[in-house]
Design a protein that fits this description.
Length: 330
């Protein structure tokens, strides 16, 4: 792949936003900010551009991409069977860190879904990206296909410099929209079943989803694949494979700081260079900073990263899921 000049665009500059729209309309790859992590976007209506996403990331073409749209009205025609649960969740949590798995309509190319009959749809809560999605809809695009803007298997980027470190020279532009406010990927809910199934915990919590659906007499379950213990043959979403969110350095995680300290002493006694993953008490801050902290630990040259898990409630479920998967990935 020949190196490209990757443009750095500012999301608060109107001319740069228009450049991002023009680049996407012309089939280029643009990394875009969202509230969760940065996405590597291409016009989902353009199969050549979508194929280029897989190449830039080094991602197998069987791994499906999320389609990002501006609002629920743009989402419905992309589904062959938009269920009551999908409608309720979309109305309650969009724009926001929630992704809905639904049967794809013929408007969505199987290139986007890795050959699957279902598509994952999401309306991200970032004003610059919503502006882009509306502009694309005006020129008859169905939205943007966007996986996280990292090389396959690496840590998701939560600011523009992470994106440049991962994909600089491989993509046409990065739209800098500042650091991501949530910091871990969206919650994915399979709405093709009743009860719905949470496939990946994320910024909208399991409790919020259960409460919302219960108000309409509906229920939700959590996939057994959540939390890091996975049988790859059962994985519904390839992103749930264990190595998916892993740093290069070996990571061990513990429930308490005492256990973490003991593990540190043991590792240091055998001569390992250990770095402790900082552990913010506030789970929102932990989530926001998690990937930047893992990146920094990874770059420290240590032999081992030792981390502490937050309690499992609320957003803690998503942070635990990512940490357990990262720890299991080696
Ligand atoms: O927060 C997010 O969801 C971010 C931002 C950029 O929106 N995107 C993101 O995309 O995390 P990605 O590709 O890194 O992870 C998407 C996950 C993967 O685990 C993928 O397997 C799953 O969604 N997925 C997407 N489409 C699917 C489909 N049709 N069937 C099953 N799983 C699907
Ligand atoms: Mg990803």
């Amino acid at each position: 792949m020949t190196a490209k000049q990757t443009l750095l665009l500012a999301s608060d500059a109107a001319a740069d936003l228009e450049s991002a729209v023009k680049l996407l309309v012309s089939g280029s790859l643009v990394a875009i900010p969202t509230e969760t992590v940065y996405g590597l976007a291409a016009d989902a209506s353009n199969e050549v551009a979508v194929r280029a996403i897989f190449e830039a990331k080094g991602r197998p073409t069987t791994h499906p991409l999320i389609v990002h749209v501006a609002d629920v009205a743009h989402a419905r025609p992309l589904s062959r069977d938009w269920s009551p649960a999908a409608e309720i969740l979309a109305r309650s949590f969009w724009p926001g860190p929630l992704s809905i798995l639904t049967p794809r309509s013929d408007d969505v190319s199987p290139i986007v879904t890795g050959g699957r009959e279902n598509v994952v749809l999401r309306v991200p809560a970032h004003s610059a990206t919503l502006h882009i999605l509306r502009a694309l809809h005006d020129v008859a695009s169905i939205g943007v296909a966007a996986p996280s803007a990292n090389r396959f298997g690496s840590i998701s980027p939560t600011n523009a410099s992470h994106v440049l470190a991962e994909l600089g020279g491989r993509i046409d532009a990065v739209l800098d929209g500042g650091p991501c406010s949530v910091g871990v990927e969206s919650t994915i809910v399979d709405c093709t079943h009743e009860p719905a199934i949470i496939l990946r915990p994320g910024g909208v919590t399991v409790e919020e989803i259960a409460t919302c659906l219960a108000e309409h007499g509906l229920t939700v379950t959590v996939s057994p694949d959540v939390s890091g213990v996975i049988d790859a043959s059962r994985a519904i979403a390839p992103g749930m494979l264990r190595s998916h969110y892993a740093p290069r350095t070996h990571l061990d995680v513990f429930e308490t700081t005492d256990e973490a300290e003991r593990a540190r002493h043991t590792a240091e006694a055998r001569g390992d260079r250990v770095v402790l993953l900082p552990h913010p008490e506030d789970v929102y801050q932990y989530s926001r900073d998690l990937y930047a902290l893992l990146r920094a630990c990874d770059e420290s040259g240590a032999d081992l990263i030792i981390g502490c898990l937050p309690p499992p409630g609320g957003l803690g479920a998503a942070v635990r899921d990512r940490l357990l998967k990262a720890a299991a990935g080696h």
